[in-house]
Amino acid sequence: MALTTQSPKILVLIRTSLRPDCDLSAYAAMEARMNQLVSQIPGYLGANAYAAADGEAFVMVQFASREALLQWRDLPEHLEAQHAGREKFYASYDVRICSVERAYDFSMDREPKRSDKT
Fold first, then answer.
1. CATH number for the domain including 37?
2. Structural domain tally of the chain?
3. From CA 43, how far away is CA 71, in angstroms rounded?
4. Is 15 contained in some domain?
5. pLDDT tens string for the chain (118 positions)?
């Protein structure tokens, strides 16, 4: 899902590497289901994923609030998917949860937007 233009309060950065014997169709089905579920959470702003040729992937997920992130974190089906990821799919992963202190952007099509005046 593409990211929104709303300024996020929370960024989740996830780096993953799949196992060599990973069932890619089962993994894709689980990933599709998780995307479907997270998109229903109020305060979920979107995600972008990037993959390298060696199989390593990086995902940046944006939430409008810590409460939205916690709703996602505690969702039972998401917890089951995390367990399946460790047991079946991932060789390794790491997760970083970050609070956005300040945000700004540039587009030649419009004026810059800032999340603060500093």
1. 3.30.70.100
2. 1
3. 10
4. yes
5. 444 456 779 999 999 999 999 999 999 999 999 999 999 999 999 999 999 888 799 999 999 999 999 999 999 999 999 999 999 999 999 999 999 988 887 888 877 666 665 5
